[in-house]
Amino acid sequence: xxxxxxxxxxxxxxxxxxxxxxxxxxxxxxxxxxxxxxxxxxxxxxxxxxxxxxxxxxxxxxxxxxxxxxxxxxxxxxxxxxxxxxxxxxxxxxxxxx
Length: 98
Prior knowledge:
Blueprint: E1 8-11, E2 17-20, E3 36-38, H1 41-52, H2 56-59, E4 64-69, E5 72-76, E6 82-84, H3 89-95
């Protein structure tokens, strides 16, 4: 069984789901409005799976990952493309929608 990273796993109100590298990016959970938090990446994908009606296996690798890159908070999408986050990470996550 893989070790959990201690990262933050959450689902925003628009149905987008994220893993935040909390060793590199500090976030205030109180400012992540209307987000649901999960203890593990597996628990997050199980919740998304039951809401979307697809399997956990289909969702693996689709979580948005937030980390630091070149000194800036950065979103890495499911294709591995980075996008620098302007402003607060909390606002970005709360408002993010595809």
